[in-house]
Amino acid sequence: MAWRGPGAAGSGRSLVSLSLRCRCFHAAVALLKRKTGADHQWLERHLKDPFVKATKQQNYRCRSAFKLLEIDDKLHILRPGLSVLDCGAAPGAWSQVAVERVNALGTDPTVPTGFVLGIDLLRISPLDGAVFLSETDITDPSTLRTIHSLLPAEKVDVILSDMAPNATGIKELDHQKLISLCLGLLNLSQSLLKPKGTLLCKFWDGQDSRLLQGRLKEQFQDVRTVKPQASRKDSAESYYLARLYKGK
Ligand SMILES: C[S@@+](CC[C@H](N)C(=O)[O-])C[C@H]1O[C@@H](n2cnc3c(N)ncnc32)[C@H](O)[C@@H]1O
């Protein structure tokens, strides 16, 4: 499916915790009913955001879908037949994109059928073509066994991570919590990612970003930083795209 999103993100300040935790339109409206002033300005900006409009028009669960669509359109990480582990999958927009792009439903019989497994601390509503592990912590040692029991093969072609810990508002602390989630995922790659596989992970920029980048470079042949247009300019959010995993 071609990306039919808007050409540019709206300007203005970030949606702070709401965007960080990917709460969507209805949650935003519910929250705003209890707030005033600056919050109403925030809602106005949110409603004018072209990606929010496109999210509704194209029936994605969250505007973050456009981040993955843009990255994939440019850098081609998903294709029919691939198996994908989507970490931090709730509410499920990245999984929607992955299901479409790997042909997980077998909609196109002329190309291979892929597989998508999504995992999140939160509950994820069912999605045709995806298997979900809801209310599950990727950092829990028992989770690896559960993931393996659900995969069609021992390892996946692509690990996606849009995970974000609950933001405390203390920038440095939030940055470190997310870096440590990414490093944990990199460790899990040994058991979960096929050789030459791909890892796409979100990070919030800060003093340990280089450390994560260095670790990725040790284990992948190609590591680059990507900041899609749907990722707000004033947000510390970026993604590392690591390709050609060197693991066995
Ligand atoms: C920005 S949202 C992901 C949005 C998702 N990519 C989408 O498009 O719908 C970040 C998610 O990471 C999840 N998360 C944070 N820490 C996690 C952990 N340790 N294990 C699993 N999920 C986690 C959060 O619960 C949250 O739902």
Can you tell me about this structure?
This protein folds into two domains: 16-57, no CATH class; 65-245, Vaccinia Virus protein VP39 (Rossmann fold). A seven-stranded mixed beta sheet has the order 3-2-1-4-5-7-6, with helices on both faces. The protein has 248 residues and is α/β, with parallel strands linked by helices. It is 38% helix and 19% strand. Residues 21-22, 61-62, 64-65, 88-94, 119-122, 137-139, 162-165 line the site of S-adenosylmethionine.
Number of helices: 9
Strand content: 15-25%
Helical content, roughly? Answer: 25-40%
Distance between the termini: 32 Å
Order of helices and strands: HHHHHEHEEHEHEHEE
From the alpha-carbon coordinates, what is the Rg to the nearest angstrom? 17 Å
What is the 3D form?
Answer: globular
Low-confidence stretches: 1-23
Which superfamily, in CATH terms, is the homologous superfamily of the largest domain? Vaccinia Virus protein VP39
Largest sheet: 7 strands, mixed
- The class by helix and strand makeup works out as alpha/beta
Which ligands accompany this protein? S-adenosylmethionine
Number of strands: 7
CATH topology of the largest domain: Rossmann fold
Q: Report the CATH C-level class of the largest domain.
A: Alpha Beta
How are the strands of the largest sheet arranged? 3-2-1-4-5-7-6
Tell me which CATH architecture of the largest domain applies here: 3-Layer(aba) Sandwich
Query: Mean pLDDT score, rounded?
Result: 88
Give the domain tally.
2
